[in-house]
Amino acid sequence: MLELSGSLGESTPFIEFMLEVILQSIKSSVKSSVKSSVNTEDKILEYLKENPKATIKELAEILNLTTRAIEKQIANLKSNNKLIRVGSARKGYWEVKE
């Protein structure tokens, strides 16, 4: 691409090439992110079925994620009616909806 751009005296071919590479990279990243997100949600639900009093910190340690990442996943699960919190934040427990 650099050679073609140099011989033409313009950068358009190189820029088009780089934009295509960037686009393919973004598409690949989005696909793996969606798969990862679903997989993480499944892991959270499975763990909470067995450990309804688990904390966000505990989930983060077990799944090797940040507490913020767990909070986002839990918010998504709650908005999709797959998970609810029963009781207070300190003394409550998680209820997984089937």
The general outline is rod-shaped
Side by side, the strands of the main sheet go: 1-2
Second-tier CATH architecture = Orthogonal Bundle
In CATH, the homologous superfamily goes by the name Winged helix-like DNA-binding domain superfamily/Winged helix DNA-binding domain
Radius of gyration: 22 Å
H and E string: HHHHEE
Stretches where pLDDT is under 50 for at least 5 consecutive residues are: none
Largest sheet: 2 strands, antiparallel
Number of helices: 4
Provide tags for this entry:
Arc Repressor Mutant, subunit A, 98 residues, mainly alpha
Describe the structure.
This protein has 98 residues and is mainly α. It has one domain: Arc Repressor Mutant, subunit A (Orthogonal Bundle). Helix content is 68%, strand content 8%. The protein has 4 helices and 2 strands; from the N terminus they run ααααββ. The chain has helices at residues 2-8, 12-50, 56-63, 67-79; strands spanning 83-86, 93-96. Strands 1-2 form a two-stranded antiparallel ribbon. Strand 1 and strand 2 (93-96) form a beta hairpin. Helix 2 (12-50) packs across helix 4 and helix 3 (56-63) crosses helix 4. The chain starts with a helix and ends with a strand.
